[in-house]
Amino acid sequence: MEAYAAGQRVFGENRPQELQQKAQALPADIEWHFLGHLQTNKLKMVLPYASLVESVDTLHLLEEINRWGKEHDKVIPVLLELHIGAEKTKQGFAEEEVLDLLFREEDFRFIRFCGLMGMASHTDDVATVDADFARIADFFAYLRDLFPELSDFCELSIGMSGDWRIALRHDATIVRIGTAIFGKRNY
Description:
Layout: H1 2-5, E1 10-13, H2 16-25, E2 31-34, H3 43-46, E3 50-56, H4 59-72, E4 76-81, H5 95-103, E5 111-118, H6 126-146, E6 155-160, H7 164-169, E7 174-176, H8 178-182
Parallel strand pairs: 1-2, 2-3, 3-4, 4-5, 5-6, 6-7
């Protein structure tokens, strides 16, 4: 509420239950972004409240969001999560998969593709993080040129509390800096 009182109106949450609880309890003019890994059985906790789902990382999830949107007559704005880090455990689409989805965007009538989200490799090596962000920024620019008809495809969500300055050098439009503002979670 202190951040809200200072004028902040866009907040992110990475846990479905917490997003639902906060959206119901806090002022209605807050714009909620969902940032975490989203399981299809949790859509009902997120999609009624989220103005942007930043972490769509599989075709199955995208199809289920589209199905939920159709059932509720709601178009869901999403970012496609691009797998750019070196870790095999990271989620997300390969570049070829993103291209395929955008070429088929008419198949997803209840999805609004708004851009890309990505996380750099988990490392303290600034050069590696910079290279990861450069790769996603270059691909984002390529997609914007290739699909000019996707006028809402304008968001690049890269950078978190430890690397947001690097992300800004690569034209990030969204940085996820909750830990820097609110501190680490206690649980």
